[in-house]
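Why does this matter for the project? Reviewers at the last site visit asked to see concrete outputs rather than summary tables. In response, this paragraph embeds two records directly. Each consists of the residue sequence and, immediately after it, the corresponding structure tokens. Nothing has been edited or filtered.
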Amino acid sequence: MIGRGQTGNTKLVKQMNREGILHQLKENSRVSRADLAKLTELSRPCVSSLVDEMIREGLIHEVGVGESKGGRKPILLEYNYQAYGVVGAVFEGSTMQLAIADLKGEVLFQYQTQFTCPKDGEKAIRSVEHGLAELLSQSRFDKSRLLGIGLGLPGITQRRDGTVSYAPSTGWMGLPVQREIEQRLGLPVIIDNDVNLMTLGEFHQGVGRGCSNLVYMYVGTGIGAGIMIGGQFYRGAMEASGEIGYMMVGPLGQRGYGEFGVFENNYSVPAIRNKAKRLLPSPQEDISIIRQLLDLSHNGSDDARELLDDIYKHWAFGMANIACVMDPELLILSGELVHIGEEGIAELRHMLAEWIPSIPRLKMASLGEQAGIIGAIHSALEAFPSARGTEMLVK
């Protein structure tokens, strides 16, 4: 925040000062204007002007009076978490989830939809458009109160310039997806990789809470990871960190540009379903393939046990590579990995203990399908922390 005596672009200064005041109100509920001036190191007239402006917008409430310290009793202020909302939206395979949350990040309404052609990028964009319309209709939430949308997409997303540079599952390759969706929806949009948002969800509200160095590993339609270092999300120079599906794990095979990586071509959910065809000629699509293989193994199938051993071993190869490079405190297992149970985790630990000198703690993800939505909401709250469209005047 910019305080007394500092200069800069006046609109930017004002917005930073507004965010500084809101931050202090989030951290210190029921404080006076004088208290805010001390906490923010802004002048009292500046604080008073900005507070009055945000009261008119509904971002701040006056909630009574405090004790006098020798003069008039101060009027206490409180941040109004219900003033506006943000939307979180995440694609996972052919499913899209959306949710509206308040400014505290608490989910108010949710909506889920299916679409039948995950490789069709245009259809995916239309799904966002339709999904938001349905969410607003069902919740009766006023669209004018939405600050923006955090959107999780498959593939390598360029968060800074709003493009998806590499996404085999949708066919997006270097397209300005963010701009297109903003134009369709009439709302600000921040995009990110779907697994990145799942990682943020577990970091903020799940099993990763309180852990500053962790890796989140997801096995689904593809294989990906999210990386937190020192409590900050690590994206890499080209915003492609965590694309572990391209690790050289398993046979190289024949693959061309725009296809999935070697690891996910061999050990993602579609690849495992393909390997299991001879054991499960009529697999249940709505039940985890790992769960079905475990049931076969428990019923005496040596072939199912052999396939599971191969899957676990190659998943563990990926984990060993991650641990040797990142040395995380915690490795969160998600997606299809959550179905291996404690017995499966013990097998992975045993293999890792034989291969690498330092083993991270292994824990199952705790938020399930909510992880991506929660991460998308936090991403939107970070990107759009105050009322959109507010005119910023000279302080």
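We now turn to the second protein, recorded in exactly the same manner.
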Amino acid sequence: MVGQWGKEDDEKVVIRCYNDLRDIIQMEWVEKSCEIGNDQTFLFTDTLGDPLCRIRNTPLSTMLVADVGTKLVGCIQGSVKPVKFHDKSVNVGYVLGLRVVPPYRRCGIASILVRKLEEWFVSHNVDYAYMATQKDNDASLGLFVGTLGYTVFRNPAILVNPVNPGRNLKLPSDIVIRKLKVEEAASWYRTHVAPTTDFFPDDIDQILRNKLSMGTWVAYYNNNDKINSWAILSVWNSSKVFKLRIGKAPLSYLLLTKVCNLVGRFLMFLGLTALPDLFSTFGFYFLYGVHAEGPLCGNLVRALCDHVNNMAASDDGGACKVLVVEVDGESNGGDLMRCVPHWKMLSCDDDTWCIKPLKCEEKMSDLGEFNDMFWKSKPGTLFVDPRDV
């Protein structure tokens, strides 16, 4: 696949499928050249030697790379899955891992990569393509929304809570926490979560059976008078897929980390959580399928999160240093944000999801018709698939 771009007339960009044997060394260089971050903070990703780690657990996926001459200068990944969206069963394609090395940016290579991936989506019966970025990422939004016709449709919040390996958190004595079998968890999700949730995966059974899924837990009160309140969540061990490291951070964060390390024993004695060392590589547990109902469900959500904290504190030899939850800011997402334990300085509320119709694009006179259809439908809560993290 050859695309037109604007650097030099005698150079052409060639888009092809990633070849692990041929490309892995150049891919390491591309990743290092495209670290995520801004002037203050950089988030380094350690793929543990597997450039495809973020899409290996999806039902159908691909990775495309861009060559200019003998140089690999860009890449993009995509995955396909069946979900429920606006009360319909559709196939959605997730766009992720878009990278173009700095010397070759602003030449149209990113646009070519996305369009070629969209063509691959269409060939695999995808109805909608979607992607996630930060709301202040002007370059990404300019490309997807401004140039490629995507529409912003959700603004979830990413909540991050540090794991304190020094002690177990005490759980309330009046709350029962029970681990569900896979069949029971899938039935619970389909009965109680799917009817009010967008992007609920049709293959929830496969997610729950995945080797990275650590299990599903439900919490409820042992007092029969409070039986109408309950909460549920599942845990995905992202530490087994890739690890992260903060490369640069504000001076205040560095100083606070040092102070926490020095007085960690006293913080433990006072029942407080120390700030973990995130400047060496660390893993995380992703809490997904978080859902709660009933007038007293807030404490149940917190109890489940504390239960997972205790799991992380004793597992993986300390590899898991934070718990991550992504909740929708709409509907009951705001309630979950108040219930889920998190540190504001580690969390962010600027995640932005954008979507684009693929199959129906030719049938609509312009994108405005899709926008009218989209916004007239009342959205449910958002299910964040752990395979997309």
